[in-house]
Amino acid sequence: MAYATEKLREEKVFKDPVHRYVHVRDRVIWDLIGTKEFQRLRRIKQLGTTFLTFHGAEHSRLNHSLGVYEIVRRIVDDVFIGRSEWNESNRLLSLCAALLHDLGHGPFSHSFEKVFHLDHEQFSQQIILGNTEVNQVLSAVHPNFPKQVAEVIAKTSDEKLVVSLISSQIDADRMDYLLRDAYFTGVSYGHFDMERILRVMRPREDQVVIKKSGMHAVEDYIMSRYQMYWQVYFHPVTRSGEVVLTKILHRAKELYEQFYQFKYEPRHFYSMFKNELTLQDYLNLDEAVVLYYFQVWQEEDDPILRDLCRRFMDRHLFKYVEFDPAKEYRKFIDLSALFKKAGIDPEYYLVLDSSSDLPYDFYRPGEEEERLPIQLLMPNGEIRELSRESEIVEAISGKRRTDHKLYFPADILYDETSKKNIKRQIRQLLGIR
Amino acid sequence: MAYATEKLREEKVFKDPVHRYVHVRDRVIWDLIGTKEFQRLRRIKQLGTTFLTFHGAEHSRLNHSLGVYEIVRRIVDDVFIGRSEWNESNRLLSLCAALLHDLGHGPFSHSFEKVFHLDHEQFSQQIILGNTEVNQVLSAVHPNFPKQVAEVIAKTSDEKLVVSLISSQIDADRMDYLLRDAYFTGVSYGHFDMERILRVMRPREDQVVIKKSGMHAVEDYIMSRYQMYWQVYFHPVTRSGEVVLTKILHRAKELYEQFYQFKYEPRHFYSMFKNELTLQDYLNLDEAVVLYYFQVWQEEDDPILRDLCRRFMDRHLFKYVEFDPAKEYRKFIDLSALFKKAGIDPEYYLVLDSSSDLPYDFYRPGEEEERLPIQLLMPNGEIRELSRESEIVEAISGKRRTDHKLYFPADILYDETSKKNIKRQIRQLLGIR
Amino acid sequence: MAYATEKLREEKVFKDPVHRYVHVRDRVIWDLIGTKEFQRLRRIKQLGTTFLTFHGAEHSRLNHSLGVYEIVRRIVDDVFIGRSEWNESNRLLSLCAALLHDLGHGPFSHSFEKVFHLDHEQFSQQIILGNTEVNQVLSAVHPNFPKQVAEVIAKTSDEKLVVSLISSQIDADRMDYLLRDAYFTGVSYGHFDMERILRVMRPREDQVVIKKSGMHAVEDYIMSRYQMYWQVYFHPVTRSGEVVLTKILHRAKELYEQFYQFKYEPRHFYSMFKNELTLQDYLNLDEAVVLYYFQVWQEEDDPILRDLCRRFMDRHLFKYVEFDPAKEYRKFIDLSALFKKAGIDPEYYLVLDSSSDLPYDFYRPGEEEERLPIQLLMPNGEIRELSRESEIVEAISGKRRTDHKLYFPADILYDETSKKNIKRQIRQLLGIR
Amino acid sequence: MAYATEKLREEKVFKDPVHRYVHVRDRVIWDLIGTKEFQRLRRIKQLGTTFLTFHGAEHSRLNHSLGVYEIVRRIVDDVFIGRSEWNESNRLLSLCAALLHDLGHGPFSHSFEKVFHLDHEQFSQQIILGNTEVNQVLSAVHPNFPKQVAEVIAKTSDEKLVVSLISSQIDADRMDYLLRDAYFTGVSYGHFDMERILRVMRPREDQVVIKKSGMHAVEDYIMSRYQMYWQVYFHPVTRSGEVVLTKILHRAKELYEQFYQFKYEPRHFYSMFKNELTLQDYLNLDEAVVLYYFQVWQEEDDPILRDLCRRFMDRHLFKYVEFDPAKEYRKFIDLSALFKKAGIDPEYYLVLDSSSDLPYDFYRPGEEEERLPIQLLMPNGEIRELSRESEIVEAISGKRRTDHKLYFPADILYDETSKKNIKRQIRQLLGIR
Predict the structure, then answer these.
(1) Rounded to an integer, what is the distance from CA C73 to the centroid of its chain?
(2) In what residue span(s) does the HD domain sit (chains A, B, C, D) (predicted)?
(3) Do C188 and A192 touch (CB under 8 A)?
(4) Which listed residue, of A80, A306, C169, D424, carries a Cα 20 to 30 Å from B138's Cα?
């Protein structure tokens, strides 16, 4: 089919601070980038509320999506090409899946998904298969092509090698976001020798494998990932931003359900409140729209909604203390009671937040969120799982680390113009002066 | 006065990708950063529509403002301190002016200022002197302090040395934006040895001067600036984004004046349309709000507003050709006539845009936008204007470069389903196939 | 004492690719840099034979020594200054010890020390305490000052905090060489956020401690060190260069002991051969001198010396196979016998080389080469050893990793013009085709 | 011919700090790198005495040669391949010429060439065409191949396009050394977007041309070159090192001609002193050998040779003042006379040194050292010389800049234990206190 192989008359390049240049020669890729659904990713930040902690982290998901595409392009065009284990006819499928893998993300995904029970992976499927410009482009390749792309993104495709390029424990997605998020935040973690890793990737029937000689670069990548999770992604201030944001959404929904009269009607939210969200509604929702509402809601009559919106907009976030929910359950109950007595609704102002990550894991069938382990290609042709070769990786393999924090508005608790004694009790329980 | 000199118990640092860390030890600075007027700068991009060309350029003015503050902090705390020509009591004034110098910027400043005859410098003054959180913080230093800061930013202050730190041909503002914009776009121009320049800066009564030994670093800085202007700031695609954006604003205003019934009322715009903009109205206006309207206006009945908004949101911008307004004036008239015949309103769809810059200039009294020339401090203590010492700078000094382009929607002109012959005539005149 | 506190009229700076600038304001430091013993470090490579593997690794020990000085300068002048636990009178002692800590290194230290039973630490002592320009400068500070500096470098000083700046598991020496060696080799390992680590260092009576908030940067540093050891310092090709070099020295010594008549008399080596090395002899020995002899020895009559020198100069090094000395002892005996039968002296051409490293260790009293463990300063003021807080470090703590390789001249073994069958047997035993 | 196209079973890579990796797939290239004549370049510094100013500049010519090869490899394999104007059969010729272009350089080329009237370009020819390992490898490609390579390096080849890759005003040689020297010295000048320039290079019959769209990157490159010349290559301290070195060579030659009895006979220098230098003598001469002699000569009886060698080894170089030879000729005569009166031989201790450079030039036929101007490929296919399009380049084009300095041993002049009055007169004339 001509369209699938059509090349642009002249290669297009995007200047990219992470990969230097993103190269586009395929007409299909160029057309996909031009769709309104892809351009919408410009209005969704890659790292949600992280910009409140790291002011450089203002980059969008479009930014990242182009990067993932470029990495996969280099793998298939510079490394896999001509190797017998690589099916060249999967090239375009790989590129499209890479470019579109985050297409279903909405604004501040994490919070919206939690409050409204959304799933960005399902929206990715809908956008690719539904009545969209993206679908039109993909269908022009082949009527069955949208489905193929969607299956790769959903990890249900039979093309397991292609799936592993996008979703495994060492895929283009992770490599791009680690490098990109490190670049934009400015942290020095997150760097590893991607060029080296790409050079030692080899196609195998079921997944990408890594030549043994590149093992140390992979170790470095895993350590980078570990550091990025705890230094950046789970940063307590970022999580505070998310806690406040989540509570705004909760409050707005609750008010809606209580027939509260909004001064500024949340028209863009209604279908979500009613659980009747259409694809078009979802596509209309971007971070500009959300921030618009947060701004106007600063003038609402409801004191909680108003306060939380102001906190988010002006970065007057919640403070936190370490908290062990297993051992300190009783304390939480007591604090809730005291908050109520002090006239501070604990539902919105006393929030336990937990973060948890596995730096690397070998395969554990049946577990949730299972990702393919990293396989090494030994000099003798054998395949061995990474943690059996690397002492460093073996040492940290499967060790889940979890962190719990209790968030609250310290400013209110320190304001002794009212409920002075109760607030002192609260502060004592929280262990803050 | 205690507050002016109060230090934080522990220094706060922001991770910054350009300067590595931004250090805050002064209570006043910390409080200013926490004001809502300063936090608002998070919702205004430093480079307006540049992100449409360089996808990395999504950084905000808050990002840049912290950077300018940090540069001035290093100058006064690491270089000027203890020198007899430096009045240590101007330290806080310098830091505050650096931090707040861009406070008055609104969304997509360039376009808004043009269409609505606004002036961000005036808004900076209003925010600093008006009823704002920023004013409260500054007033707590000294009742006269807001005025002093405002005068430095307005360049009317008698503290000419302080003014020159923020506004001259080699000031902290320019140094930060060149480095920062190069970093976020990923271009390799824009780098110069700022650390070296800072080390050779010396305070003099009227302005900062540069030790002769640092002249080459300054040459490099001027060349960087030149390259950034033509490679990034005046990039024709960026300007296309600006052209479309400007036309959206024009159209909305025109519709309002014609009593058009908006489906989505532009409440945030009314006072601007009416020329009755208050400070509060202005502060409520950020890029999230603007993008919200652009999104909902995609559903308006007016075909021009709808079309232009879609173009902006989906990055279907105008194409361009080189155009010499002096020589080709006649052609412009003819094209306008043909556009009308083709049913394409030339007012909105045929736009001449010009960019112009002086890479460096020695002092020319009386000219508009005059900036202080760069003065070198010679080994013998004499002061000499840069272009008299540097052959490179002398060669380019005062050479204004201007670029004119004519913008139009190529897709419409290629669509031959209607007005085929007229469109062919237009394309021929434009010199596009 | 005036000289100890004398400042240069104008600060001197060296452009340094790793720390950007090395700053010198103290007259004593400036004078030390100008001594012939310090300048000699220009003619000794920091990484010995590593340039044979990584062609960028041509940097000298002077390069590194300036770097260590600069790091300590930043610690004491930017971080420790003014803290009650820091004795400002130890400032110059710290700077001098940092600058001079590697002063006793000779050419290709590792090999020379092994063959001639030298000890660079003893030479450091002799240079500082003996009749040298360095001693003159230090004595001018105070007659007892050379002894104080020497004790810090020997780790016998009572100023344990100062010692820990130069020799602990996170000292200025290690931080500089990791960053510097990564920079010059071009590998992407070896980077960590030194600026962050410096900022969280705190003086305590016995040693430097690290604020808990910097723990992740320290983890990153430890992983960098691990990677640099296995990727760069223990690279098998580098070790091959060292094996050949060591064997040249062995051979020259043996020939001398056998009254061999050298065409080019090794005058610079005689006192070493005789175990009568004086300080002056040692100082005259640099890598230029060693390479001079290696060059002229390419023309010697002795075939082994000649061959080994050519190999080193032209980079025709030995190849290697993995080898387990514990399990394969018998094989080594057999190979030696076969080498003899083939007319290849196994003493020089069959070499077992082992490398071993501990990535990090908590304190184990009585063990050789014990270095201070890293101590964290907890928010509550308590001190805790790193591996008790960091799961990553705990996982790798105390895990010694060792690598054994067997080196041999593959070219000779493949040359079948003589002893064809024996060579085939050898190759079979070695497991090379 | 099989050898010319033979590929290695597995690509070899060298880690390179400037280009990240140097890739070798051709057997011929691999064999050339392994020759003793190429390996000798490890013992010759790329920047001569620059390491005395910038301590990082210790990198060798081998380092640079690999870089030039890699750039040409990328041009021919990534950019030229498949273009009709490119003759693929010139590929290997280009790669070999790039790798070997500096083969004839000796130790501290500049000084040796001046004193002994040598010419490194002639030695390049001799090494390639003479009885060497390099010649053997090249001859195995084709008996005429060494001559072809030699002609490209000598710029006498008819393959003008290939010549222009190695020697023009924007060739692989210049691009590599600017980037590399900037990297190793650590200066921030010298950076430009090489990747961009490579992408817009196009083959034409007579030379490489640059697409107009890359003009700004080329401007940046020219400015980088300008800055590197004046900031690094012509640095007055570097030139001081060269002045001292040149005078050592002069003195040694003079002593030889006066039948002086050297304690340490300069065997490696004899044939040079006698003007009977053979190729083998030249190849035996590297910087280790030169430094060996300088070290032993520190013990010679001749006070001038001894003193100069100590100055060079211990970096006690000459100081300098600005000097205009045209206007101040009389002063030079007077100074010489005073030096003699003070017992300081002006022949060795009063040295005028001039540096001069053209940042860029359009073509001026008949001028010495003429290099091809840079040609732009315009969108319409026309070719235009760079300075006709670029205002910046036009402004500096053909502007030669020259700098004269007078060097002398300040320490002797300040030593007032003898000839106090004459020395004062000298210092007064020199304008130093």
Answers:
(1) 22
(2) 61-178
(3) yes
(4) A306
Q: What is the C-alpha to C-alpha distance for residues B246 and B240, in angstroms, rounded to an integer?
A: 10
Cβ B59–A56 below 8 Å, yes or no? yes
Q: Name B20's Cβ contacts closer than 8 Å, sequence gap at least 6.
A: A186, C195
d(CA C209, CA C378): 10
- CA of A46: which chain B residue's CA is closest? B58
Strands B351-357 vs B375-377: parallel, antiparallel or unpaired: unpaired
Instruction: State the fold for domain C2-234.
Output: Hypothetical protein af1432 (1.10.3210)
CATH 1.20.1250.30 fits D240-355+404-430, yes or no: yes
Domain at A236-355+404-430, CATH from 3.30.70.1230, 1.20.1250.30, 3.30.1490.120, 3.40.50.2300: 1.20.1250.30
- Rounded to an integer, what distance in angstroms lies between the CA atom of residue C214 and that of residue C212? 5
Looking at CA atoms only, how far is residue B373 from chain D in angstroms? Answer: 19
Cβ-based contacts of A54 with chain B (< 8 Å): 14-15
Provide the residue ranges of all domains of chain A, joining segments of one domain with +: 2-233, 236-355+404-430
The CATH class of the B238-317 domain is mainly alpha
Q: Which residues contact D383 (CB under 8 A, 6 or more apart)?
A: D204, D209, D375, D376, D377
Among candidates D193, D231, D399 on the partner chain, residue whose Cβ is nearest the Cβ of B188: D193
Equal CATH topology for D2-233 and D240-355+404-430: no
Mean pLDDT per 10-residue run, chain A (433 residues)? 88 94 97 98 96 97 98 96 95 98 94 92 96 98 98 96 95 96 92 92 95 93 90 94 97 96 92 93 96 96 97 97 92 97 97 86 58 89 93 83 94 95 96 86
Find which of A53, A188, A199 to mutate to test the C interface (most C CBs within 10 Å of its CB).
A188
Please judge whether B58 and A60 are an interchain contact, meaning their C-beta atoms are less than 8 angstroms apart.
yes
- E strand or H helix at A127, and its extent? helix A120-129
Give A13's contacts in chain D (Cβ within 8 Å).
199
The greatest distance separating any two alpha carbons of chain D, rounded to the nearest whole angstrom, comes to: 77
Rg of chain A (C-alpha set)? 24
Q: Could you identify the residue written with the tokens 């223990």?
A: C234
Contact A63 B42 (CB under 8 A): no
H-helix segments, D155-235: 160-166, 172-185, 194-199, 215-228
User: Closest Cα of chain B to C140: distance in Å?
Assistant: 30
Contacts of D195 in chain A (CB under 8 A): 20-21
Residue B179, judged by CB atoms within 10 A of its CB (0-12, 13-18, 19+), counts as: buried
C268 and B CB contact within 8 Å:
no
Cβ atoms of B311 and B317 closer than 8 Å:
yes
CA torsion, ordered A16, A19, A24, A28, to nearest 10 deg? -90
Tens of pLDDT, residue by residue over C359-394, are 777 665 555 456 788 999 998 999 999 999 988 888
CATH number, domain D2-233? 1.10.3210.10
For the whole model, what pTM was predicted?
0.92
Residue A15 host element (H or E): strand A7-16
Judged by a CB distance cut-off of 8 A, whether residue A21 touches chain D is yes
